[in-house]
Amino acid sequence: MQPLIIPPAKTKFIVITGGVISGLGKGVAAAAIGKLLSSNGKIIPMKLDGYLNVDPGTMNPLEHGEVFVLDDKGEVDMDFGHYERFLGINCKSKWNLTMGKVFDFVRQKERRGDYLGKTVQFIPHVTNAIKEKIFEVANEEDADIMMIEVGGTVGDLENELYIEAVRQLKNAVGEKNIAYIHMTYVPIPGNVKEQKSKPTQQSVNLLRQRGIQPDIIIGRCAQLLDDSIKERISIFCDVPKEAVITGLDVDNVYRIPLVFRDEGILTILNRKLQLLAPEKMEQWEYLVHQMDHAEKEITLAICGKYTKLEDSYASVIEAIRHASAHLGVKTKVKWIETTEIENGNVSPAHALEGIDAMIVPGGFGSRGIEGKIRAIQYAREHGIPYLGLCYGMQLATIEYARSMCNMPNANTTEVNPVTPYPIIDLLPEQNGITEKGATMRLGGHDVLVKAGTHAEKMFGPLTRLRFRHRYEVNPTFISELEKKGLVFSGKAPEREIMQIMELPTEKHPFFMGTQAHPELSSRLEQPSPFFVELIRSASHRKK
Ligand code: GLN
């Protein structure tokens, strides 16, 4: 058997597992810890997912939450959104390992003859493959700290191989180079009204049965963990009391690093991993303060079809928060289910009453789109600041063609392949593609910005945005749309793909669309100008 790749000697590993229930926010916790440690050098997050899909790109956002798209074209778990937003880095698709990828890799090795003569087994071959992938990333990135988040909860069959692989890591990298953090749930049952440690004890037992003794336990709880419960968890789970940290329920996830810090997590991690750099959280703290204390409030409508599950628009919500924090504005989001407008149950005027700004986010297919188009028309005609994201730009273009260019029934061929005015049409390179996995126009692309436009004021002559689409503004109709006053202010350098669209400021205070998903590259400390300008304009209008 080939010797295992060895990670750089300097790399420290922090492994995060979860227990008791899913949805405790391990991804946010990992990102928050990474942020607190970020003055210690290069922090690289990795997420290990148990499912057999190669990536989440083909999953329904209702089931799995939003698909996060990376600059390198990778379609990855939405936890990568937290990593990027907290750490301010561009993650890579290799950092999201799925069992689909692991088995692909092992099978390729087996066919190549790498295991010749051997019976290929879960242990050691699959677990070695997992470690190899982790070490490969550590080496390629020359990481100072690897944050490794194991998906799911301890005891899930589909994650057992990851748990076993991260257990083996300790021997491979040395005890002083690795810290294990286990995140659990501390309930406060309604009738007893006190914090309960039993689920944590049981979950830590499951972890210890698998050979992992946690160094830190984060107990997710509605209140700060009190002294007595920390004591109990410390005794039963064999960790120092100071290593029991509250994972407080907060309505602002950006407060989490500050909560962890105040609970003393850095003392434990610095001691265990011999880290020395002091934390640098001033700007972060200032922005969190801005979020929690903004006085001016605006209401922003998001018109979509997945509005029942906010996770499917997670990045849009975060981008709104980032921009609001920078402007010192509190933005209340109102979800508008456009099927209701489409069915005639509510009028756009009624649905958009009291709204200061509107977003139509990305989407696919035909459900609710006529309702979205009517809402966009209302926003355009009534000067409501509007931002269209991907599908939202395509639909705004269709609305403009119908209302202003005398093209009745203009549409996208995604919805109506025989429309007389195919304003939005398939990208030529998409013709003939039948496979659905990772075949859209994906990832980061440069955008050339037109001089003299609003976009130029926001970005200068060139910017880079992230994409995930199959359709585009049909080049045949561009000059007609432009003649009637629509401005295409951003284009792809390699070909005339329209990337940003706007109405001149004398016609509308803020009406913009982009074929991109700027929400994916917005960070708390570096908000997306699209969202900043939308909210700034809404806030002026409200005055
Ligand atoms: N359905 C549209 C397309 O494929 C928009 C995609 C999106 O909003 N992400 O081009």
Automatic annotation (TrEMBL):
Q: Which reaction does it catalyse?
A: UTP + L-glutamine + ATP + H2O = CTP + L-glutamate + ADP + phosphate + 2 H(+)
Pathway field: Pyrimidine metabolism; CTP biosynthesis via de novo pathway; CTP from UDP: step 2/2
Any idea which UniProt keywords this protein has?
ATP-binding, Glutamine amidotransferase, Ligase, Magnesium, Metal-binding, Nucleotide-binding, Pyrimidine biosynthesis
Q: Where are the transmembrane segments?
A: none
User: Can you give the residue ranges of the CTP synthase N-terminal domain?
Assistant: 12-275
Q: Name one GO molecular function term.
A: ATP binding
Which residues does the UniProt record annotate as the domain Glutamine amidotransferase? 310-535
Give any Gene Ontology cellular component. Answer: cytoophidium
Which PROSITE patterns does the annotation name? GATASE_TYPE_1 (PS51273)
* Family indicated by similarity: Belongs to the CTP synthase family.
Identify this protein by name: CTP synthase
